[in-house]
């Protein structure tokens, strides 16, 4: 039976030096905590908030992230594709998610705000109705991805193949058109 942590606050903990307890964290807040390279597999985070935490290359195998908010977190190289996809629901603000693996993730209605998602992989993911507010998507992979009704109007540096992805109802800015027609060799000025 896993341990339950309810409405707890954790601040400034370096879990590379102090043991992290696998369990169920419900309505908990983590601030300035370090999780790099850590295995937090099979942990449940329900309605939790992470502020200024470091998750670089953290292992999330079988982890539940349900209604979780990440603010100012470093999440370079995280693999969300191994999370419990059934309840996967996150929001990210001012986070670095470069090289994140979101292969086949269901992230519909997710809001990424002021995030760096450089070279992240969203292959075969469901990002319907996702919002990318002032996000940098340089080198991000969208391949057979559901982008229906997604909002890219303030995102930059994206390249999306309209023939390989579902884009009906997606919103783009005029400045982003070049990222949609790149494969045709069209130059926009």
UniProtKB/TrEMBL annotation:
The superkingdom listed in its UniProt entry is Bacteria
Instruction: Name the InterPro entries for this protein.
Output: 5peptide_repeat, PA_immunity-related
According to UniProt, the name of this protein is Pentapeptide repeat-containing protein
Organism ancestry: Bacteria, Pseudomonadati, Bacteroidota, Flavobacteriia, Flavobacteriales
